[in-house]
Design goal:
With 306 residues, the chain is an alpha/beta fold. The protein has helices at 2-19, 38-43, 59-66, 93-104, 138-154, 172-176, 178-191, 206-209, 232-239, 250-255, 265-280; strands at 26-28, 35-37, 73-74, 110-117, 120-127, 158-161, 196-200, 218-221, 261-262, 287-290, 302-305. It has a 7-stranded mixed beta sheet with strand order 3-4-5-6-7-8-9, sandwiched between helices. A two-stranded antiparallel sheet has the order 1-2. A two-stranded antiparallel sheet has the order 10-11. The structure holds zinc ion.
Length: 306
Amino acid sequence: MSWLTNFVRPKLQALVRKAEVPDNLWDKCGQCGQMIFHRELEAAMRVCPHCGYHMRLAAARRLELLFDEGKYQRIELPKNETDPLKFRDRKRYSDRLREAQLKTSEQDAIIVAHGTMGSTPAVIAAFNFDFMGGSMGAAVGDGLIAAARLAVLQEAPLIVIPASGGARMQEGIISLMQMPRSIIAVDEVKEAGLPYIVLLTDPTTGGVSASFAMLGDIAISEPGAVIGFAGARVIEETIREKLPEGFQRAEYLREHGMVDLVVPRAELRDTLIRIIDLLRHPMPPAEVVNLPVPSSGETHGQIATS
Ligand SMILES: [Zn+2]
């Protein structure tokens, strides 16, 4: 018996233990329910290889995927007053903030960085949905202003990537004031004649969709992203009507003229580079070339080519 318990059992247990797979090695697709190997999912930029479902992406990972060679410099954002209203629901707002900061290792729901895209300088402001649902308070407003001013300073296009549930209710009226504030910020970019591009990701809702997010010179969206102001259920209950299929999805918005392009994540970088190039060099210099002289000798002309 001792041989069995002391030798055979540990050996068997060791064998079984090796075969066990930790849970965090696999992710479940939110749309088709398939299990996907974690590394495979990361390599596919968190797009389900089975059904093409675009999962949410952390802001830092987005910047890495968009900038040349994944290299960029972040800028430090101004420290603002936390909890201006001393707000409290089930928890203090200041405690919620601290928890989100610990969870994400970020100060607030937005990060701003600059680098190059296709060798052209670009500024990107990206939302982190993991930070209190990407909600927009004064710190996010500050981030958008800083991003806009940096773009003007560098004469670079500004790309904003919202992923947000809307205004941050714990900041009350101050969060609502970020709507006009963010609009003024992106107007500075437009007034400087620089491209302002919005990449709408899942979800872009509430006060964010009602302000800077729908004002891009070009509005691009990821497939399947939810984009809207109020939630579909709230609208249905208010108007007492069934909403059409795909309502508030990126593809529906494109069909109805609210979004210009729906671009899969793998093609986003190339598409953005192409758009920036088109917007920055809209008129290639035309040069005049002489047409070959026709054999009849009757018509001589010149044609402007571009
Ligand atoms: Zn899937």
